[in-house]
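TLX3 protein
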Amino acid sequence: TAALSPFTVTRRIGHPYQNRTPPKRKKPRTSFSRVQICELEKRFHRQKYLASAERATLAKALKMTDAQVKTWFQNRRTKWRRQTAEEREAERQQANRLMLHLQQEAFQKSLAQPLPQDPLCMHNSSLYALQNLQPWAEDNKVTSVSGVASVV
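Structure:
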């Protein structure tokens, strides 16, 4: 029997990750009491960030670890940012809808109001026809008879 050298390479069989140590078990999710959550929320409403001394004091008062309070505040700030971004987006969309509605209203009013008559156009039939032409109005149909366009 030959002695094995300390540098002998053992050959792995199968996938390289199979022989690794099994992953550590995840820590179960911590459940906080309603009182703890209520106090954390009140504090968050007043103050989004805590100094380490403030965090330690709050953790002690709520019978939590410093890490739990720190993680809770980090998660709460993330939730707060997402909510405020969603609210800003909803406000932006509402403002866009209002602006579109006001533009449509103004356009409808402009269609209903007669155009002021230009004195120059009153004496020239071609200019008069052009001034009163409203291509966006649905009831206007342009017909062409012998090369001359007229509005019906």
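The chain has a mean pLDDT of 80.
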